[in-house]
Write a structure and sequence with these properties.
- Helices cover 51% and strands 6% of the residues.
- The chain folds into two domains: 2-31, no CATH class; 62-232 and 273-401, Rossmann fold.
- Helix 18 (346-363) links the parallel strand 4 and strand 5 (366-369).
- The protein is mainly alpha-helical.
- Strands 2-1-3-4-5 form a five-stranded parallel beta sheet, sandwiched between helices.
- It has helices spanning 2-15, 20-25, 27-30, 33-49, 64-80, 94-103, 109-117, 130-140, 156-166, 195-200, 203-207, 211-218, 221-232, 239-253, 262-269, 296-300, 305-324, 346-363, 389-401, and strands spanning 88-92, 146-148, 173-178, 328-333, 366-369.
- The chain contains 19 helices and five strands.
């Protein structure tokens, strides 16, 4: 009997079933292949998020969403290396973006060099505002720093998310240029499904204040699942970029640079409905722009008041976020051409203006309304909404010399 017990005890010790040391150290935990795989995915996902996989991909192979996403990531890296506290950050969609870009002639060569090294779009990734910066510096008699954080096709909820990321070193002021499309866009992705959310939504943002509740309550089920996957598996955030980059590398290896593979076509199709078409080349002066070349009538009609309510809430949250961080927020309803307003219903336009007026009054922020303002004639617009060089300079001159927003 004793011999049998000794043999059973020895067997148990070899298998570790009754080994108290094994239980205490939890070695069985580290022997799990699944846990090691999870650990690898989390760590690699963090490392992947620090890389720009699109450096080797020609820009004509990038979808609008990937192009925007890449520009956002570039601007955030530029922000981290910028001076500790900017005097002003310009936010908004392509309306203020084009204004800052076309007013800068010549452009900031340092920024252009860094953009070229990272294979960035010259308009969307441009972070400077040289003309505005110099005008304000001269007016105030002091060095005034401006950072361009505009994002093409961004919604107000995107601006709120982006602003929360900028608050690691709060700027003295934020100038937000808005248009009706920033509140309601039937062509753009649904709430929280935009390239900005794909690029910036992460655990720190979700855990701060009630951001997760705000996002998940207003998003659709498919968007919720997408965002949840970004939190649980960070690598998934860049799966389209990784796939497209690997596809390009494969083509180079097999000398198929001129072909567009099925995988590449699929990756472009999976980037949702974002269709950003920005004017990179100035139109000829005698060439009359098409009234709705960017499909704004489809963006506006039928009127999406539910989406407008979500974005109005985001604007109110943005006002409170800036107040909490002692950052002055200045809201500007950007000029558009006279014909552009006819692309939406009068009721929708009136509701948009009411949101701006009510929110600015409620939160005590400066608000400039260029609705029906004759400052920028139709001839100074490239495509009825985006100002060209002449209009951009005229508009910025007015902001500096007559609006009073830079007097403090």
């Amino acid at each position: 009997m004793s011999t049998h017990l000794r043999l059973e005890s020895a067997t148990n010790n070899k298998t570790g079933r009754n080994d108290p040391v094994s239980k205490k150290t939890g070695l069985h935990f580290f022997r799990s292949p699944s846990l090691w795989l999870l650990f690898f995915l989390v760590v690699s996902g963090f490392l992947v998020n620090q890389q720009n996989f699109l450096t080797l991909v020609p820009q004509n192979r990038l979808s609008a969403a990937l192009l925007t996403k890449s520009s956002i990531n570039f601007k955030m890296k530029e922000w981290k290396t910028s001076p500790p506290k900017a005097d002003a950050v310009i936010l908004g969609s392509s309306l203020p973006m084009c204004c800052l870009y076309y007013a800068d002639d010549p452009k900031n060569q340092g920024v252009l060099t860094r953009m070229k090294a990272c294979n960035q779009n010259p308009l969307q990734a441009y972070t400077a505002a040289e003309y505005l910066q110099k005008k304000v510096s001269k007016s105030k008699g002091t060095d005034f720093k401006v950072f361009n954080a505009t994002v093409a096709a961004s919604m107000i909820s995107d601006v709120y998310l982006l602003t929360s990321k900028l608050m690691d070193k709060p700027p003295k002021s934020i100038i937000l240029g808005v248009g009706l499309r920033d509140f309601a866009d039937n062509i753009n992705c649904s709430f929280a499904g935009t390239p900005t959310y794909q690029a910036l939504f992460d655990l720190p943002y979700a855990l701060k204040d009630d951001n997760a509740l705000f996002t998940f309550c207003n998003a659709t089920n498919s968007v919720r699942q997408e965002l949840a996957s970004y939190l649980l598996l960070p690598m998934y955030r860049n799966h389209l970029e990784i796939g497209l980059t690997l596809n390009i590398l494969t083509e180079k290896i097999f000398q198929k640079n001129g072909e567009r593979t099925i995988a590449d076509a699929k990756s472009g199709a999976d980037t949702n409905k974002v269709t950003v078409k920005l004017p990179l080349l100035i139109q000829e002066a005698d060439k009359k722009p098409v009234l709705d070349s960017l499909g704004y009538e489809k963006r506006y009609m039928p009127a999406n008041y539910k989406q407008m309510d979500f974005e109005a809430e985001a604007l109110d949250r943005l006002c409170k976020l800036c107040k909490k961080n002692k950052t002055e927020l200045i809201l500007i309803n950007m000029p558009v051409s006279s014909g552009h307003q006819a692309l939406c219903s009068k009721e929708m336009r009136a509701r948009y203006l009411q949101v701006l007026e009510t929110t600015s009054t409620k939160n005590g922020i400066k608000y400039l309304n260029f609705e029906n303002n004759k400052l920028i004639p139709d001839s100074d617009f490239l495509d009825t909404v985006h100002m060209g060089p002449t209009g951009a300079v005229k508009f910025l001159d007015y902001l500096v010399s007559q609006s009073g927003i830079f007097n403090n």
